[in-house]
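Our platform keeps sequence and structure together, in a single record for each protein. This encoding replaces a full spatial description with a residue-level series of whole-number codes. We quote a single record here, exactly as it is kept in our systems:
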Amino acid sequence: MIKKQNACLLFFCSGFFLQSCQSPQQTSLQSGVAYNYSLQQWQSMAQSAAIIYRNAGLTLTAELKFKDDQWGKKYYFDKISLTAPLDEYRVDLLNPDLTNKFICSWRCERIDEPRYDKLIGYYTHFAFFYQALKPELLSFYSNLIETEDNLINLEFSNDQLMIKLHKLQENSTSFATFSDFEEFVANQLFKPSGYFEASTQSTVLTNNNSASNVITSSEVVEVSTLNSALTPTAQTPITVKVNDLICTYQENYFGKVLEIDADGSKALIGVKGQAKREQEGAILDLTAGYLIDQGGHFEYVEMDEMKVFSIVDIAHCDVIK
């Protein structure tokens, strides 16, 4: 005679019906194992692609979405962006981490939280999300690798490549599909122009000490405060060329000329630092023109950014590092 407590296991020992005989702890554990395995697959795909993007400090994020239809739930990415910051509703496609992330429809739910359905048992949104979108992700990361290979084959210099990636981020918007994003990237990276639509290799500097607004600017990234020295040059009309070392009047930046627009009015500078002074633990701005007018020893905040300046806001200077 079969004991009652074993009847369920003997009768439903295969296929879908085995789920009904497992404990909640057991099925939840299996769901967690599947979740970790799928996430590791996704992370492995991401790490093998977009090396150039990561080296340039770019972050590619997207929202995770689902909607109910007559066939169940449809999962998809939305608002793919190079500029939107990470938060609990956006995932980094170059380094996916779903910890405390939400997937949204008309409501938002944790994507990694185990849930229970009487027909399928325990599951996570991510299990179905990844199953549905794995082919799309494979295609996306393969296309990223192909793009990087094409960039390498074109033999851009490091400065040229950094300019293109900087402009890519600056001109980026959000995209509804990977295809839209890939079309934008191709148009930006492979067209012949650099940062400016037309550029020149040199221009004449005049009125170097006249105050001028920076054309574009970004937040200062404070890395360290160091000591260095500056040898200023005479303030007479001179020619500035690509790769020259310059300082700016308004905000005391220093760096290298990467590109000059065709009419000679603006220059793209690879900024390496900004002169500051430290007082009682606070990092303070220096007076406009300090690097150009005074020189000598100064402290600075180390940076690695690109900024566009009016040509009348820059002057030659030699920073000794």
